[in-house]
Amino acid sequence: MRLAATLHTALAGSDGERGFPTRVRDAVSAYAHFAVDNAALYELMNSSKHHPGATLVTRAAAAAFGQMIDLIAEGQAHGALEQGDPEEVGIILYATVQGITTMVNSGMIGAERLDGLVDSAVSQFLRGARPLGPQSPPSGR
């Protein structure tokens, strides 16, 4: 339930006060910092969630990720994100951030890069990884 509380704090009081992109960044940043600051707990949560009898872990995950799914559904309702299954859309962002936090936790990349990488991941997620300007053909073709 600690992760759910962390995400709740990141999102609390932000309805209408901060824009959707800022709220996504705040929630994803809180998630990433939780995963890095609590690496052993985070690994346990991910490795045991689908084991028989892991009802507490499953409930904790639902409490945490339900908030993110609600946020994604809100973005879809307001036209900030493409329509689709909010859980499936969220898995893409979750997998990206999990990859970043796993790389930090394993020492593949330095923890000082966490915030920049998370910010880039959220930006790319929100714009669909499309270039902002006109596309030019790839060089060498």
Topology:
Layout: H1 2-11, H2 20-37, H3 39-48, H4 55-77, H5 86-105, H6 114-127
Helix pairs in contact: 1-2, 1-4, 2-3, 2-4, 2-5, 2-6, 4-5, 5-6
Strand tally is: 0
- How large is the share of residues in beta strands? under 5%
At CATH level 3, the topology is: Tetracycline Repressor, domain 2
Mean pLDDT reading: 82
Report how far the terminal alpha carbons are from each other. 52 Å
Q: Approximately how much helix is present in the residues?
A: 55-70%
Biggest pleated-sheet summary: none
Q: How does the overall form come out from the CA principal axes?
A: globular
Helix/strand-derived category reads mainly alpha
Second-tier CATH architecture: Orthogonal Bundle
Number of H/I helices? 6
| Number of domains as seen in the coordinates | 1
Radius of gyration: 16 Å
In terms of per-residue confidence, which ranges show pLDDT below 50 for 5 or more consecutive residues?
Answer: none
Structure report:
The protein has 141 residues and is an all-alpha fold. It has a single domain, classed as Tetracycline Repressor, domain 2. It has 6 helices and no strands. It has helices at residues 2-11, 20-37, 39-48, 55-77, 86-105, 114-127. Helix 1 (2-11) packs antiparallel against helix 2 (20-37), helix 1 (2-11) packs parallel to helix 4 and helix 2 packs antiparallel against helix 6. The longest helix has 23 residues, at 55-77. The N and C termini lie far apart (52 Å). 19% of the residues are buried. The model has no long low-confidence stretch (mean pLDDT 82).
